[in-house]
Amino acid sequence: MSITTDAQPSPEASASDSLRRDESARQADARDRADMERLAAGHDAALNDLMERHATPVFHFLCRMVGNEDDANDLAQETFVRVFRARMSFRIDEKFSTWLFTIAANLARNHFRWRSRHPNVSLEAETGEMEQTLGSTLPANEQAPNEQALTAERAAAVRVAVRKLPEDLREAIVLCEWEERSVGEAAAILESTPKAVESRLYRARQILRARLKQWL
After folding, report:
1. 168-172: long-range pairs with CB below 8 Å, 24+
2. Which end of the chain, N or C, is less surrounded by CB atoms within 10 Å?
3. How confident is the model over 66-118, as pLDDT tens digits?
4. Cα–Cα distance between 51 and 34 in angstroms, integer?
5. How many CB atoms sit inside 10 A of residue 188's CB?
6. What is the C-alpha separation between 196 and 183, in angstroms, rounded?
């Protein structure tokens, strides 16, 4: 067990931070619902406001899912096309970001099915954005050149290992680890149950530990 002398936040400070995060999330949800109401009422410009807040997170999610910036960009655009088409069916009592990521996840699944029927399309595509994103999951402190090379190699190993996971396991890992979604929200996005997501996470982590044991 490591021992640190850094000052730890008091319980009061932690509780205050949690309350601020919750309030910020509630305000964001309220803005999303208001924009969806505007969109359903015929104010098409509301879609621009939704895209301004959510386009980048959706793009990054899809990059992690499909491993290719061009495909992720196309799917992100299609995600918001679907939002516009389904604007009248959005339930104002549901969380917009969960609904949005459900659309994106379904498009990613369809994309994988398409690729399985077109095996000539490379499954090993790598992009600068993907490298940066996965690298950000590793320590980001200033490193010596040899350490930077090792980190890059480690990031590449993680990228390949995650890409080779079965689709349902990859979805769970990407949502819960990189997107930092709760198990409950991941279950809603994947139209599954929390228990099923927990099972997928467990199996994914077991596989990744085995494949990445030299890096652990």
Report:
1. 168/200, 169/200, 169/203, 169/204, 169/207, 170/65, 170/204, 171/65, 171/105, 171/108, 171/200, 172/197, 172/200, 172/201, 172/204
2. N
3. 888 999 999 999 999 999 999 999 998 899 999 999 999 999 999 888 766 65
4. 14
5. 20
6. 9
Q: Give the rounded percent of residues in the chain with a pLDDT score beyond 70.
A: 74
Task: Output phi, psi for 17, to 5 deg.
Answer: -65, -40
Per-residue buried b or exposed e for 46-81, using 16+ beta carbons within 10 Å of the residue's own CB: bbebbbeebbeebbbbbbbbbbbbebbeebbebbbe
What would the pLDDT profile of 150-206 be if each residue is shown by its tens digit? 777 777 788 788 888 999 999 999 999 888 899 999 999 999 999 999 999 999 999
- Domains in the chain, start-ordered, CATH in brackets? 16-120 (1.10.1740.10), 127-216 (1.10.10.10)
List the Cα angle 24/139/159 in 5-degree steps. 90
What size, in residues, is the chain?
A: 216
> pLDDT digits over 124-164, tens only?
344 344 333 333 443 444 555 666 677 777 777 887 888 88
**CA distance to 19, 28, 57, 123, per residue, from 22 (Å):** 5, 10, 19, 39
The single residue listed with the structure tokens 């640190």 is: 4
- Cα 26 to chain centroid, rounded: 20
